Amino acid sequence: MDKQEFFGILSRTIGSKVDLINRAGINKGIYSSSLMDVKDNLIGLAQPMHKGNWVQMSGMELTINVKSGGNLIEAPVISRGTTFEGVTAVLWVEPTGRINRIQRRSYVRIPCMLAAECCFLEIYSDTESELESDDPKEWFPILVNNISLGGIAATVKQGLEVNFYKKGRYLLAIDLGGGLMFLNLLLRSILNNNDNGVPVGAFAFGGLSVYQDRVIGNFVRRQELALKQR
Q1: What are phi and psi for residue 214, nearest 5 degrees?
Q2: pTM over 0.85
Q3: Where does a domain end: 104, 123, 143?
Q4: Backbone angles phi, psi at 202, to 5 degrees
Q5: How many structural domains is the chain composed of?
Q6: 196 and 88 housed in the same domain
Q7: In contact, 114 and 174? CB cutoff 8 Å
Q8: Which residues, at least 6 apart from 57, have a Cβ–Cβ distance to it below 8 Å?
Q9: How far is Cα of residue 113 from the mean position of the Cα atoms in its chain?
Q10: What is the mean pLDDT of the chain?
């Protein structure tokens, strides 16, 4: 997709939600934002916040994900600074490379049954964390029920569902065939499992490295092939 087409789509979706991904540094992670404005070669986004504070991203190389027509558009950008529109802080970013339209198929959920471990880190919110504790974080077992290039769905044993916090940040320890990997997760929603009453956590991956993305992609493709051969 060329830049002109991309900006045309953005101009028609002002106000829509976007994900802003930082893959490196101390602020590594995935941040929810919204599209505020487009002008010249710049894209205006609502300044990402964490625990009531700005997430410093000036001059950083980032990735934005924008949903359009059932597909996902992914673009590498560099941040060019923050300005104020009234009382609203706007982070301006500029596309720097190839803009890709990722079909919904790329995020197809593949069923699986994988034992893994998860560790709750904190609540992601625009305000202060809902959970403040100096206690060490404990790992708990989960069962990954499906996986895609965008995230996982997982269940826990009865009694452990108290570890599910919407907008919670987690660290996942899982082996997808290339050895144990540690992945950042964000709990997007908690769904009801009508079969046994145990809630299902829908998690999005956050800030994957190139290597992690490749390992997950290879696992998804192997699972797809195995399903077709049944």
Answers
A1: -70, -45
A2: no
A3: 104
A4: -100, 110
A5: 2
A6: no
A7: yes
A8: 20, 22, 27, 48, 79, 91
A9: 22
A10: 82
What stretches of the chain show up as alpha helix (H) in DSSP?
Answer: 3-11, 210-228
Distances (CA, A) of 18 to 12, 45, 65, 112, 177: 14, 8, 6, 29, 32
With beta carbons less than 8 A apart as the criterion, state whether 137 and 149 touch: no
The alpha carbon dihedral of 115, 121, 127, 132 has a sign of positive
Q: What is the pLDDT of residue 125?
A: 56
The Cβ of residue 1 has, within 10 Å, a number of other Cβ atoms equal to: 13
DSSP state of 130: S
User: Measured between alpha carbons, how far is 121 from 183 in angstroms, rounded to an integer?
Assistant: 12
What's the pLDDT tens digit per position in 56-111?
A: 787 888 888 887 766 678 889 999 988 988 888 899 999 998 888 766 555 678 88
Gap between the Cα atoms of 167 and 172, Å rounded: 15
**In this structure, are 113 and 217 located in the same domain?**
yes
Q: Which of 104, 127, 155 is the last residue of a domain?
A: 104
CB 170 within 8 A of CB 207: no
